[in-house]
Amino acid sequence: MLASLLLFSILLCRILTGATLLLAGISKIRIGHNRFLQAIMGYDLIPKNVASIMARFLPWLELITGSMLLVGLYVQVATLIAFGLFLLFCGVVTISLLRGKNNDCGCFRTITPVQWRLVFRNVFLMGLLIPVFAFKGGIITIDNWLPIQTTLNDPASTQGLIILILILGIVILTILLVHRYIHKHVKLLKAT
């Protein structure tokens, strides 16, 4: 009973993260290359030619990764890609906030300025991916029905899980410290 509940909750984590990526990818494809390129350029982190490649490639990567998570195809590989995407999104939004920018996050179809809520959302989604990786997607996966080995071998899975947990811990700690520093700095500026 408890094992079934655990596997079902992992399925829900997989569906939530997969649907988030799928919808984000579809939204970016629908708004078009130029508008998403403007959102990427708003971060002012990479040259325009690299941003243009990212504006074409990233929505499709989100769409494919989200679809793989939803159906449970190559779950551990899709989980690692999704974790990396959410980590990337956390990083660029945090850098933008540190720089005091108010640019469009480029997350979905609506124009949303960068804000801490987006960072915390991505960290939460990264956290949901850890049990998905550890339990190979839970129940109802295509991986379970395929006759070929679709998961990483056990030593790699264990090491991968430890690395994901460490990265998530470091990200949470860093974000909390940066968030506290910014708020403390803003209070000092307002006091003077």
Please sum up the structure shown.
The chain has 192 residues and is mainly α. The chain contains seven helices and no strands.
Could you characterize what this model shows?
The protein is an all-alpha fold and 192 residues long. The chain has one domain (2-191). Helices cover 78% and strands 0% of the residues. It contains seven helices and no strands. Helix 3 crosses helix 4, helix 4 (75-98) packs parallel to helix 7 (154-191) and helix 5 (116-134) runs antiparallel to helix 7 (154-191). The longest helix is centred in the C-terminal third of the chain and has 38 residues, at 154-191. It is globular. The termini are far apart.
Q: H/E order of the elements?
A: HHHHHHH
How many beta-strand segments? 0
- Shape call: globular
Helix content: over 70%
Which segments are poorly predicted (pLDDT under 50) over 5 or more consecutive residues? none
Summing up helix and strand content along with how strands pair, one would put the structural category as mainly alpha
Give the terminus-to-terminus CA distance: 60 Å
Q: Describe the main β-sheet briefly.
A: none
Strand content: under 5%
Estimated radius of gyration:
18 Å
Domain tally: 1
Q: Tally the helices: what do you get?
A: 7
Q: Average pLDDT, to the nearest integer?
A: 84
